Amino acid sequence: MSVAREVNRAQQMREKARHLTEAAERTSDPEQRRRLQEKARKLQEHSERQDGLPV
Questions:
Q1: Distance, first Cα to last Cα, the chain
Q2: What's the rounded Cα separation, in Å, for the pair 22 and 39?
Q3: N or C, fewer C-beta in 10 Å, the chain?
Q4: CA atoms lying within 13 Å on the CB side of residue 6
């Protein structure tokens, strides 16, 4: 995979994580909020790992 594609994929994951975090803040269901926050956290961690991959 090209470096540009990897960077783009990491950016997309961070954007999705941001949207999930925002959705979690809007929901009134505590269980749904927890699930959304967990999903956002995992995506953010994955994007950070991708950023750290050697070129």
A1: 10
A2: 12
A3: C
A4: 12
Residue 45 structure tokens: 């961690």
- Positive or negative: CA dihedral 39, 50, 12, 18: positive
**What distance in Å separates the CA atoms of residue 51 and residue 55, rounded to the nearest whole number?**
10
Give the Cα-Cα-Cα angle 49, 50, 55 (nearest 5 degrees). 120
Please state the pTM of the whole predicted model.
Answer: 0.81
Q: Are 40 and 24 in contact (CB under 8 A)?
A: yes
Q: What are phi and psi of 29, to 5 degrees?
A: -85, 115
Q: Tell me how crowded residue 13 is: count the other CB atoms within 10 A of its CB.
A: 20
